[in-house]
Amino acid sequence: MVEQSLRLPHVGVRERVERSVFLSQLLLAAATLLLVAVTVAKDASMFVEPLYFLGVMVIFATTGLAAAVPWRRLPKIWIIVLPLLDIVGLTLAREAQPQLGVSFLLVFPVIWLSTHFGQAGAAGSVIFASVLLWAGLPLKLLTDPNNATGYATSQAPLLAVVTIMLAFVASVTYTTNRRALAQRVLLTQQAGLFEAALQRSRRQEQTLDEIFNTVDFGVVGYDSDGRVNFVNRAQRSMLTRFGVSDGIGLATIVYKEDGVTPFDGPDRPTQRAIRGETVDRVTVWLGSPDQPQAAVLVSARPIHDHTGRYDGGVIVTRDVTAEVRAVQARDDLVASVSHELRTPLTSILGYLELALDDETIDPDTRRMLEIASKNSDRLLEIVSGLLTAASESKEGLALTVAPCDLSAIITEAVESAEPLAAQRGIRFELAELAPITVTADAFRLRQVIDNIFSNAIKYNVESGKVSVEVLEVSCGIEVRVADTGRGMSEDEQGNLFDRFYRADSVRGSSVHGTGLGLSISRDIMREHGGDLRLESTKGKGTTAIATLPVNRG
To answer: What parts of the chain have a pLDDT lower than 50?
Structure first.
């Protein structure tokens, strides 16, 4: 199996056989020609020695044979004829002129046979050459018995050295060639593996290119130096509409959510991404404000290599113009409808209050008027919330900040909420609070606290509890409101701050709401430099956590 694998490289190189055979023979012919030149220069009479001349002619004739025969078309075994003829020719020349050192040229055919015919060639070449060399001694004994003893005495040690030398050369050549062939097989196998891996990589790259060019959102890849190295078809198409030259992949001028204020260079989402930052769902506008624009949602993630070193990243963009326009249209509709409803509702409430002030009405009529007044109040509250949401989405929150006592705001909110809580047997737990002065919009803070308390009551269980704590933390003041209600799942918590969102678990219940309170409350807290978050466990309750810096900018 090993011998077979070592010969595999020869199978595919038959077209080079002729060239290899000729060059191997030409090398010996050149050495022989040099030897002849030295012989003629030293003593021309040596060249006319019949055996010497015959040996040289055999080598030159073999060279001509190597050049003339199409060895590529013959079985490889026929090539062995050439080095064997060389051994014969060199042995004849050496027998005629032993003092010239012709025997050392035998290394050429020995190397040839050891290289091309493996172990058999190495052993056979040494045996064949040794037999021919040592055959000269008995031949001398028969042809010149008088000088045979002296000749044998002088030549035997030299022949022994030559035989050992040829055996050593054959062994080293065979071993070296075997190792080289093994390395060649290994390199061929590794090259095959690398080629297969390269083909797989190319197929994967092609597949990814096709996938990225099929999707309807933009994908931009960049390296650690910020150079763009991939832009998919959707991204190129979107940028072409706004005059960005193909190949850049990123717009150099984008506008903030208002569509008018340009992003400063370092603050652009794409620049943040190139610096290695993570960008989550940032909306930018492409196109000049005085021309048609497109809203684009930008997200980006950095990529790190196996050592953790920053190695570029990917930017994903999506055209959300239709969604943004739809939200704007919805807000406009909500604002318009709410405004139209507010005036008649106010009038209805006014007349209901006047009717209730009449002490002459009978109890049944009063009860019906109180129900109508209560529902009208609720409807007015809903309309006011819708108007507030629509106004904030267009103009943002307007705060009127001044020093105020947060403890007093919370205490007043608890007192206002307790009557509603008492109807369901819910009690408030609030320790006595020391005055806490903050710079904020007191009206807006009260709006947030009222909304949190309202939710804690609406979504609590009968005879439940609402605990209120005010804590000093590293970032400022933390107001924690915990209820013992139904709680929420993780999926529900993920959408709580989306406008108009109501969880499936309460949508079909008797608990009413618009899904705007938490969104508006969080916006208010963030405008103050704080935040609002919820922690909830299904079946155990919810904790609302409002944070507020002590000193506002």
So the answer is: 1-12, 508, 552-553
Q: CB within 8 A of 387, min separation 6: which ones?
A: 334, 335, 338, 339, 342
> What's the token pair of residue 267?
């603050």
pLDDT at 441: 87
Q: Which one, of 100, 213, 98, lies nearest residue 156 by Cα?
A: 98
Where b means 16+ CB within 10 Å and e means fewer, 441-470 reads: bbebbbbbbbbbbbbbbbbbeeebbbbbeb
Residues in the chain, overall count = 553
Contact 55, 91 (CB under 8 A): yes
Which CATH number, 3.30.360.10, 3.40.190.10, 3.30.450.20, 3.40.1160.10, labels domain 218-319? 3.30.450.20
- The conformation of residue 255, written as its DSSP 8-state character, comes to B
DSSP reduced 3-state for 463: coil
Q: What is the dihedral of CA 513, 515, 518, 519, to 10 degrees?
A: -150
Q: Which two tokens stand for residue 153?
A: 């005495």
Each residue's pLDDT tens digit, 373-417: 877 776 776 676 666 666 655 555 667 888 989 999 999 888 888
